[in-house]
Specification:
Layout: H1 6-9, H2 12-20, H3 25-30, H4 36-43, E1 50-55, H5 62-74, E2 83-88, H6 95-103, E3 111-114, H7 120-124, E4 138-142, E5 148-153, H8 161-166, E6 172-174, H9 181-193, E7 198-200, H10 206-215, E8 220-224, H11 225-230, H12 234-240, E9 243-248, H13 263-269, H14 274-284, E10 294-296, H15 302-316, H16 319-328, E11 335-336, H17 337-348, H18 352-362
Parallel strand pairs: 1-2, 1-3, 6-7
Antiparallel strand pairs: 3-10, 4-10, 4-11, 5-8, 5-9
């Protein structure tokens, strides 16, 4: 068989063949010294395929809006330019989608999911409904780190934080379930600074919680800062004076929340012991995963993982994508899949005292 010098394979002729799909099986056999048939197969492994993106939340909420936006751009950065199908699978703060991805979705690189960034708490405390290992997901990336806030109806009979601390009947906050900010943040505030809330969990998703707030079933909700300022009905609620933000979980006051105290300020004010402050830090580190991290199934090859991670990061830098999300009031503070993979391993490895505290905190 005839051999060719290496520089020949890099010629414009071969590149043209490659672009227009004119490399025949015979030609690939001739180019076998570089194993180009395998490389070309990998490059076009997504051609004609459809990638499903499972959204663990209801249609129309911030997770869903993000997924339906970035999937319009993601395909052009994946060899073969695949199609995308967004499918909602709401419930339990994204846990239903996480269980599906871990146990049912095929490990073929054609499934992605957006899930809750704090779902690893449910694994740490040993909840029976958890059917995944946080560390074994293939982590693709997240568009932003997320801080949390608590907002409340302005007509609720709690005008100050002291009113909440001293109330005989605590305000009612909505949540989907453990591992969601709506469930966990009120528990954390009660344990650290004595702000008491009655958490009503089991709502399927954000839209149901919005309706519950409007109907007066609940008076408050813990939520991510970016989503609160990034989607309706919250901007309209703010303009109408329907809700107000009473607390934020950032280290420093967020630029849009300069008149709202942080949990760190309250821990200073109430002289919270250092041990509890450290434990609060463990919980709030979940914000590094962001509110809508993207995962794929366990067991992806290194090549598939690299393709998906690279494409996601390139999408978040796409000028047209950035122009669109800027108009929506969204921002990007991306964390790479490699960094999330390392973080996933780190957060699962907790000492017994931290696990015991989380179990006490999240199973009241």
């Amino acid at each position: 068989m005839k051999r060719y010098p290496l520089n020949w394979f890099k010629s414009s002729q071969v590149q043209a063949f490659k672009v227009f799909g004119l490399v025949s099986v015979l030609t690939l056999e001739l180019l076998n010294p570089l194993n180009l048939e395998q490389a070309f197969a990998q490059a076009n492994s997504y051609q004609g395929k459809t990638i499903r993106v499972i959204v663990g939340y209801q249609a129309g909420d911030s997770h869903d809006q993000w997924a339906r936006t970035y999937t319009r751009y993601l395909g052009k950065y994946i060899p073969g330019n695949p199609n995308f199908l967004v499918q909602n699978m709401p419930g339990a703060g994204g846990m239903i989608a996480a269980n599906y991805m871990y146990n049912i979705a095929k490990q073929d690189g054609l499934s992605l999911a957006t899930i809750g960034g704090a779902l690893y708490f449910a694994q740490l405390i040993g909840r029976s409904e958890v059917k995944y290992d946080w560390n074994k997901f293939t982590w693709i990336g997240t568009p932003e780190r997320s801080g949390f806030l608590v907002f409340m109806r302005t007509d609720a009979p709690y005008k100050t934080l002291e009113d909440i601390r001293n109330a005989s009947e605590p305000p009612r906050c909505s949540a989907t379930g453990v591992g969601s900010s709506g469930y966990d943040v009120p528990r954390l505030l009660e344990d650290t600074v004595g702000l008491r809330f009655k958490v009503i969990s089991g709502y399927p998703g954000g839209a149901d919680q919005d309706l519950a707030m409007e109907r007066g079933e609940v008076q408050c909700r813990a939520f991510t800062i970016d989503a609160f300022f990034g989607r309706e009905p919250f901007p309209t609620w703010i303009k109408k004076g329907f809700v107000r933000v009473i607390m934020q979980m950032e280290r420093k006051r967020h630029p849009k929340l300069q008149d709202v105290p942080t949990i760190w300020e309250l821990m200073d004010q109430y002289k919270v012991p250092e041990a509890k402050r450290r434990l609060a830090t463990v919980y709030l580190n979940s914000g590094q995963f962001g509110s809508r991290p993207i995962v794929s199934t366990p067991g992806l090859s290194a090549e598939q993982t690299k393709i998906l991670r690279d494409a996601y990061i390139k999408t978040l830098k796409d000028p047209e994508f950035l122009d669109e999300i800027t108009k929506r009031g969204w921002t990007v503070d991306a964390v790479s899949g490699e960094d999330l993979q390392a973080l996933a391993k780190e957060v699962i490895d907790q000492p017994p005292e931290v696990v015991a505290w989380l179990k006490k905190l999240l199973t009241k």
